[in-house]
Amino acid sequence: MIKRLMIVIIGLFLVATPTFALDVSNMNTNAHIYYAMEDASGNIVDSVGNYDGLATSPLYQQTGKIDYGLGFDGTTTRKVVTDISIENAQDVYSYCIWVNSDDNANWRRAWSSMVATNGAGHLLQIGGSAPYLGKFRWTAYYSGVKFDAISTTSVATNTWYHVCGASDGSTAKLYVDGTEEASVSITSASGSTNAWPLTLGVRPDNNAEKWDGELDEFVFFDGYTLNQTEVSFLYASGSPTSNQQYTFSTSAPNTPPTITPIPDQSMNEDTTLNVTNAFVIADAEDPISSLTLSYSDYNTSLLNTTSISFDVNTTTGAVDMSITPLPDAYGVTNVTINVTDTSAGTNSSTFELTIFNVNDAPTITAISSPQIVTESNTLVINFNVTDIDNPYTDLIYSAVAGDTSLISSATFSNYDGTNQTLTIVAPADFGKTDINVSVRDLQPAIASTTFDYIVNCNTTTRYYSPMNVTEQEFVGSTTPTTCFDQTFNYNTITDILTYTWHDFGSTMNNIKFWAYDTTGNFRIPLNETTLTGNNGTLTIDYSVVNPNYNILAIADLTDNTRSFYTGSGVSSTARVLDVEINQAGQLGSLFSVSDGIVYGVLILLLFLTLGIASQSASLTLIFSILGLFIASKFVLRIPSQFIWITGALVVILLYLIAKLRTD
Hints:
It is a single chain. This protein is mainly β. The chain has 5 domains: 2-7 and 24-237, Jelly Rolls (Sandwich); 258-356, Sandwich (Immunoglobulin-like); 363-451, Immunoglobulin-like (Sandwich); 469-583, Immunoglobulin-like, CATH 2.60.40; 587-662, no CATH class. It has 5 helices and 42 strands. The strands form 10 sheets. Strands 2, 4, 5, 8, 13, 14, 15 and 17 form an 8-stranded antiparallel beta sheet that branches. Helix 3 packs parallel to helix 5. The chain is elongated and about 165 Å long. It starts with a strand and ends with a helix. Mean pLDDT is 82; it is low at 3-21, 463-480, 565-570 and 585-591.
């Protein structure tokens, strides 16, 4: 029987009632040792908890079949000692191990359990001479060979193999990569009680036949003989497609999820590609909602970790895929889509993504506004352009002004770089306009920016004289102004007055603005405002206080340095605005003020006569007031004093009429 150096009670994740056709409870119960060999130092952990392997200088965390494995160099005594000692050729046991050899031409032991110094015992090795040369040999030797199972597979170096042995006491079967390759009878024999326990990586009695390569995933079953189905189960559980250690649970081995092939995709740069039903995922054990999608192996100059998103139909497994490359990125890359289940089983599909280059418009920085220059001078404006698709020498620049008379010339320079210069020469004139600066490539794609452009007059060189009228402007009167622009508007519907001004001499002290009610040919002050600053807008609403009044607007400009007239005693104040708004009825424009008084009296007498003829004092009063209102408001311009005098006369007449009737 197999002797244990330690007696441990085994509990191995039993499941009471298996739900799959394969019942692995026997393996679960009889698994005595399982070394996953993921250790970074020290002894080798037994995952089923019976006995950690006593380690002597193995090479830790080498590249294993499943994650990490242990390394052995074939020259140094590196080994792992277990608590198992196989003392009889007919002992019942099974084992499985992943092996990778760097040498297939010399005797190399993956493991052995010795009962005597003459080499007697059980072992798994690669043969170093015929008929074992380059083959797996699982054998038992007790004063002669008791069984000798030799693989049909020729061992290749640097290749992983899954090797299992199963003995029921009469037959020993050798399996390689899940396939039975030898079945031999066992001859009865017993060994010595002074045994060397099962040791990985070397012959334990003399440290010979050192393993050269890596070992991974060693499991030993005490008193149990694996069958073909169970060997296949263990091979599949630890295979690369599942990438998982043995579980020894009573469930079937996890199968990796599936993913359908993904067609190659193409798109334009700076767009998003939405692919409906790009691929389908599924899994035998897990619901679709628990599967995880990711992507890898892509060109990071085209995509990043957030460039691809997925929308999974959890019923059908169909996946919609959305791809947004990095800005301005184009080229070709392979992309691998990975699907992972809850047991770390994974699968993948790779497609080619082509991103076509699309011409991008150049860019231009904003030019600050306003840009100000004095007449006949030069203005230099610096700005920046970029173009990721075209050389700077292919770019074309233009500057377009709303008022072309304010630009004598406009030229660009520095065509070979991002820093650009616009040089504008102003004429001997003043004013304000906008300028649109644009840059375009040969496609053409255009970028532009617009700014306000102001040309001020030169107050030190311009000479103003009443005789030199070509240098003067006249607004509503013969009073001249200089380097000054204004607009005046009165909306007769809304009774809102708007006045804007701009002094292009830039030396204005202020503007005195007056508004008068001139209804009835009189001037009654409404507003007096001092306007400061070289430019601005004044807005006054007369809709409530003074609706339908005749309005007179006057503005005087005061200048600190410029004289608007020459000669002694000349003031530096210029009348720049003198505008009257007549809101009387249309007929009023056909008559003078004196005519208005005459016709107003006639209208009043007409209505007064109608009232008297009615022989009613009340109707007389009503008709009189109505005639007075029509005469003053809708027909003719009548002074307000006349209205009051006429009203007094009406009252007197009414009094006399009433008295006559009484007498």
